[in-house]
Amino acid sequence: MKVTEHIIRGEGKTQFSFEILPPLKGQHIQSIFDNIDPLMAFNPPFIDVTYHREEYVYKDLGDGLLKKQVVKKRPGTVGICAAIQNRYNVDAIPHILCGGFTKEDTENFLIDLDFLNIDNVMALRGDAVKTETYFTPEKEGHAYASDLVKQITALNKANYLDDQLLNCSATDFCVGVGAYPEKHMEAPSLDSDIHFLKKKIKNGAEYVVTQMFFDNQKYFQFVDKCRSEGITVPIIPGLKPISTLKQLNVIPHRFHVDLPEALIKSIIKCKTNVEVRQVGIEWCIQQSLELKKAGIPMLHYYSMGKSDNIKAIAEAVF
Ligand code: FAD
């Protein structure tokens, strides 16, 4: 079922959803199930599965020659989504990126998803790879998520890349896209970022999931601004509980979001990461309860591959 239908079916009741990370190669599907199992009691209508590009380094072969060498791989998102749908009978939502994909790769990926009865996809650009400063699309790929959304909606109208292709049936994907209440790091202004968010929606995106935020006012102000710009699709808040002291520096640096002073102060007082984790849980519970009170129909939690803290939050909120 589509995310938009899940929201309508919820009839205003706040629902719980979360995303998981494919584990590093060498682990087994059971490691994913072990993280999902404790969260199924909270009836998530869908589970997102993030997509991670291979990580590589350039090895110097001498004589000015460089060899691209893959150093980090994860099992494929498509297989993980199929396993989740089979085991739990909930919708699995694969993330699909512009980065590392040609248009043909994208089409093949979508054909697999359609075959597996996957109804939703989250369309994202992806970040620059670690060896580059700026995002570089594949030669035959998309530079922005809005172009990726366009390709998916074209497939929904049975428009494949090659018009000579046989057996071209229309797909029926519901497309989600990302948005940033505190502005995407590369955007010159929030207005400009919202301008391009509108383009993703014009091209066919039916719902939005936000980047994590730690101050609900940022989310409420962002939603107000989007609504005043004519954006009417659901804007699902993305929430992440802080879990280690190191994240005090990593999160603002990597995700370009602010941490409220009160949260920083509480974390700095902690003597161990066990205490930090508890502070993170309590902060996220308060955020979630306020969003629930405001009637937000769906909350989305970034589990980052660990579910014990998300379970503690869900127990208090749902
Ligand atoms: P876009 O919408 O393409 O925007 C990128 C930047 O370009 C923005 O600054 C935007 O304002 C600007 N822009 C857009 N269109 C144009 C245009 N036509 N001309 C000029 N500027 C333009 N990353 C992963 O690798 N894997 C994941 O699974 C993943 N999941 C995510 C889930 C969510 C909910 C979110 C919010 C992010 C996720 N990301 C993931 C991170 C995401 O890939 C990065 O934040 C990336 O840098 C931007 O992706 P986007 O889809 O928002 O890009």
From TrEMBL:
CDD domains: MTHFR
Organism (species): Olleya marilimosa
UniProt cross-references to InterPro entries, sorted A to Z: FAD-linked_oxidoreductase-like, Mehydrof_redctse-like, MTHF_reductase_bac
A GO MF label: methylenetetrahydrofolate reductase [NAD(P)H] activity
Keyword line: Amino-acid biosynthesis, FAD, Flavoprotein, Methionine biosynthesis, NAD, Oxidoreductase
Name of the protein this chain belongs to: Methylenetetrahydrofolate reductase
Highest taxon of source: Bacteria
Biochemical pathway: Amino-acid biosynthesis; L-methionine biosynthesis via de novo pathway; One-carbon metabolism; tetrahydrofolate interconversion
Class of enzymatic activity (EC top level): oxidoreductase
Cofactor: FAD
Similarity comment text for this entry: Belongs to the methylenetetrahydrofolate reductase family.
Reaction catalysis annotation: (6S)-5-methyl-5,6,7,8-tetrahydrofolate + NAD(+) = (6R)-5,10-methylene-5,6,7,8-tetrahydrofolate + NADH + H(+)
E.C. code: 1.5.1.54
Pfam family, one: MTHFR
